[in-house]
Amino acid sequence: MHSYSKIGHCHHLVAIMALMASVSSSSLAQSNPTPAAPAQPETNVWQGTLQANVPLRLELQWQGSGDKTTGVLTSLDQAAAKFAVDSIRVTDDQLVFEVTQLRVRYEGKFNEQRTEIVGTFTQSGRELPLKFVPAGAKARQQLREAWIGTLEAGGVQLKIQFRVFESDGGKTTAVMDSLDEKQGGIPAQATFNDQGATFDVPVIRAKFEGAWNQDKSQLDGHWQQSGQKFPMQMTKSAPEKLSSQPRSDRPQTPLPPFPYQSRRVTFDNTADSITLAGTLTVPPGPGPFPAAVLINGSGAHDRNVDLFGHQLFLVVADYLTRKGIVVLRYDERGVGESQGDYSTATSVELA
Question: Which of 64, 139, 144, 149 is the right S-S partner for 166, CB 3.0 to 4.6 Å?
């Protein structure tokens, strides 16, 4: 057993808000209605944009007053993922709240007119400015249209969706959803002209360009990414929702009971002062055993590496452990239960 009791330090960073895409939604706790104090704002729904690597729109909603105040934080650009606020304090001039599962703390001050809250959003030691304004004060965005197509590349099929929104002021914005990967709300830019449309996704260095068919219900074009070009067709359709459940047609997914021990573990990276979390699977018997650490190749994923409905690392860990090998698989930084910041990672740090 001593062969795996001490786990070496790893240098691997995770995106500031990536955790929002990987944790299941939490519902807003309900409380008995109480009369609003005179100093309370007319609306308890506030919105702001966090300027991380890409802009992320956040919505904070609270209800009640004093010790009975409860709230929920929603990441509007990440499939509207919701997170319960663990503690919140609202006074005449200050707002402070914490979301423990995201390791988030926000401290802000109301202006004299109580029309905005200016403060600092802190996550895992990183501080970013964030201003909230009442939701009613912002130009509302309405879904104008959605375009859906299937990208075929390298023997893999991915269903891609672009949702196009229009604000009250006529400004057009868009987001991309990778429906099969269950990743959504990726900021995009949409451009329309007489010949066709272009959807640009800077964060993944990808672009789709297509030409209209006769009634402008379809775009025939190409998906371009990393110097490669693939034919692709997109159709104007009703938007599809991101599924939070893996596909059911995955017979290789291991199911309990397992013929080995499965333990939740944490280990520290002293170089970056963070804690990573994962699962250690141990074969039966006295040991000692050979051991393996599963490390994902790219992107920020949880310990199971859930892609296209497959739980890749769960399958691999199960196979190896049944063959007598101890296996550690872990949440990458900022995902699941691991701390960290993927957005500032370099290749050296990831190695």
Answer: 144
> Which 3 state secondary structure label does DSSP give 158?
strand
Long-range pairs, 44-49, Cβ under 8 A, ≥24: 45/134, 45/135, 45/136, 46/117, 46/132, 46/133, 46/134, 46/135, 47/76, 47/132, 47/133, 47/134, 47/135, 47/138, 48/117, 48/130, 48/131, 48/132, 48/133, 49/130
What residues have CB less than 8 Å from 149, skipping those under 6 apart?
A: 159, 160, 208, 219, 232, 233, 234, 235
Instruction: Encode pLDDT of 20-55 as tens digits.
Output: 333 322 322 333 344 444 444 444 899 998 877 667
Q: Are 37 and 90 in contact (CB under 8 A)?
A: no
CB 3 within 8 A of CB 324: no
For the stretch 202-229, pLDDT in tens is 877 889 999 999 999 999 999 998 788 9
For residue 9, the one-letter residue type is: H
